[in-house]
Amino acid sequence: MTKLSRLKDKILHFVKKDKKRSKSQFKRLLFGMKFTDGLVFKIAIYTMLIGLGYIYLYPMMYMISYSFMTMNDIIDVSVNWVPSSLTFENYRIVWQAIDYPNALKDAVILAALPALSATFSSALIGYGFAKYDFPFKKFLMGLMILTFIIPPQVTMMPTFKMYADYNLLGSIKTFIYPAILGQGFNGAIYILIFYSFFKMIPNSLMESAQLDGAGPVKIFTRIAVPLAVPAIIIVFLFSFVWYYNETYLSGLFLRGSDMLTLPLRVEEFMSDYASLYPEGSTARELMQSAKLAGNILTILPLLILFFFTQRYFVEAIDKTGITGE
Amino acid sequence: MTMKAKVKALLKKVISFIEIYIINPFNKYVSAPIRKVIYKAFHSKVIHISFTHITFFNKFKLKRSNKRQQAFTGFGFIFLWIVGYLIFSLYPVFYSLYLSLFKVRLEEYGLDLSFKWFNNYRAAFFTDTNFGEHILNYVLSMLLNVPVTIVFALIIALLINQNIRGKGFWRTIFFLPVIIASGPVIGELMNQGATTLPSIEEYDIIDMVVNNVGSFLANPIQALFDQILFILWFAGIQILIFLAGLQKIDKSIYEASMIDGASPWESFWKITLPSIKPLITVSIIYTVVSMSVFSLNPVTVYIKGFFTRESTAALTNGYGYLAALAWLFFIVMALIILVFVGALNFRRKKAK
Hints:
The complex is a heterodimer. Chain A is an all-alpha fold.
């Protein structure tokens, strides 16, 4: 008899313990222990991420959906996100008006050549700053960072006059010359990227090459550049994107020339279009979605580029350690 | 003889032919004279370079130390930058400062200058109501937008830094605006009202806030919500900067603090924030600059307006006025940066 009751006790004890354990397990699952995240926490994080992601992508989605809408859809209040019928009319208008393939070719040339020269020059300059000691180095680097803070409005007029004096206005040279001298658009950032990248390459590599009889130029081209391929790609991509999107200075220096960046060309076409049709006419209503279609056509090449190279963009700051050490 | 040997013999013949008829004459008639000229140039009376010394005019002797050679090559590498700095930064900056003190008119023979002391600056403050208004709005919007950007960038970076799935995916989403945000694109989105969140407007939160505070504060707040997406779109690079900083913090510090009984909240304020403080400074500078220089900023649009259309202001006040405005803008921008960075450092001193 006592044996049986003991067994009963034992079983009951186990059940209790199991209940307790499952409760604590459930609690752990929800709120997490010290070193693992609970379910509540995870859900909170994912909701925040999805919410913020929605905020970030909202304008993009807006652009895409509106660019496919017909006039009736835009006016119709009940049509909110999904157009009632897909129309490529907006794209056709913009494509033909700006002669998209040619405009794209111009825009790519306008972005790629300055980007290439900026990459070349900032690699040289960053290497010089990173690997050599010379008087006034700190001071010069301070000046370099200061050039990032000086807004283009200050230097815009004298530069404009200089270009006008040498008949450079309206040509791509207005962007190549500053870029090849390390003063391009956001030039200081590119130099800093190369600077911190070359800083990470151990000096002993260069020294051993020097012992083998290589001069400074040979060390740079044979050792430093091959090691800096990620930095080169990063700088080229960033400068390409920034030059592609640049409208402030290019609107000034390239005004009235055949070569125009894509955003400017779309803008130009839109203002022509607006002046062609009076306010309130149906064609004017269509302009809204045509504008958005133009925007999509502008950013499409960048999106494609980004799709293939996003690894470099996103890891840029990790890899180059631009964050200051 | 096999085919292979034949080819080999032929190759040998070709190489020796090239050597005799091309390389040797080149060395003799082209390369050697050039080397001779270079040798003469560096072994003359004016400058004489030996293995140990460089002598100028047979008098001034310079030791060829390793340090000097390093400095020389270093300057060689940054030579391009020095030239560029002089042409495209230093000269324009001082030239525009110089012009800002003059009344400048474009004549056929060039610029017509008449010295006016600080008239341009005075005009910008007292006569030109537009500019004052723009600058005031700009300062207010900066004071609001920059902290918002930094805080959101920090929050997003912290979120991505958690142990979540698809880090690369999230990073890509939050970085996307950096790629596509150009002036016309954002301008168009703002025109169409796509930079406001419809769900915020539906709940009248903004109206409530705006009605309860004075119009002085209400206008910037309303502007903030009107373009909240546009502000967030500027946070792409800052998120990456913070993320890189967060990943460099040693995990064992968190573990140690946890064992000592610190809550995640505490460890954020006591560990995370202090260790990424330098990065906050960096991203504040980046935010202020990129937002100020952005081509849709009312101030920059206003300044550029003097250039692109033959506005009456440009004709009456001249280009000197434009230079003065640009300089004022620069000073205001630098002050904003100083205020933010100063506030950050002030707090740090107090905490110690």
